[in-house]
Structures are given as C-alpha cells and as structure tokens.
Amino acid sequence: MTVISSLLESARMECGLTQAELAALAGTKQPAIARIESGANKPSLRNVQHLLAIMGKSLKFKTARLDPLESGVDSSLIYENLLLSPRDRLLKLESACRSMLELRKAAGQAGG
Questions:
Q1: pLDDT (tens digit, 9 = 90+) per residue, 68-106?
Q2: pTM of the model
Q3: 70 phi and psi, to 5 degrees?
Q4: Which CATH class is domain 3-54?
Q5: How many helices (H) and strands (E) does the chain have?
Q6: What stretch(es) of the chain map to CATH 1.10.260.40?
C-alpha cells in the first residue's frame, strides 16, 4: 500500500462509499479502484484529484523550508562538498578518516 492508496481508501471510507459506488461515480469499474487502493496501480495526479473531487475532497500541497538544525542536516556542508571535484572529496574524506583514527587512538591512551 502506498501513501496515495491509503489516502484514497481513507477518503472513500470516510464518505461511506464502497469501491463499486466510487467506481460508478468515476465512470470506471470496481477492480480499478481496488488496484489503486492496494497499490498495484499507481494513478496519475490528475486521476487522484478526480477521485478526491468526486468525494468532495481535494489534495493540497504545501512547501516548507527545512530548518537545518531541526532536520539534522547542514545543507551548507552538502553544497560545499558538491563544489569539490570527486578527487578532492576523496582527499577530504581520507583526511577526516585519519583525524578520526588519531582521536580514537588518543582516547584509548587517555582512558588507559
């Protein structure tokens, strides 16, 4: 089951419609609705909107800017690394790995 299939099935059930009733209203057959709701058939956005409209519902999209601190991702670091050549990225990674090994070694000696 997909997010869309779950959404459509929930909307249909909320409206008190059977798959056959929704199919009749949409001008299709019950097995087509069943395939959509099971996730076997991936409907187009237009078809999803059409089925929702039949049930008096709509699909709304909202964009939001993610706060890097909340998402745990610092996109500036991603962008900075994408500006590097593949070779320079590997060199930077090797340097970071060496630093980590040195820290582990130092921590082992300090705990010792």
A1: 566 666 777 788 888 989 999 999 999 999 999 999 888
A2: 0.56
A3: -75, -35
A4: mainly alpha
A5: 7, 0
A6: 3-54
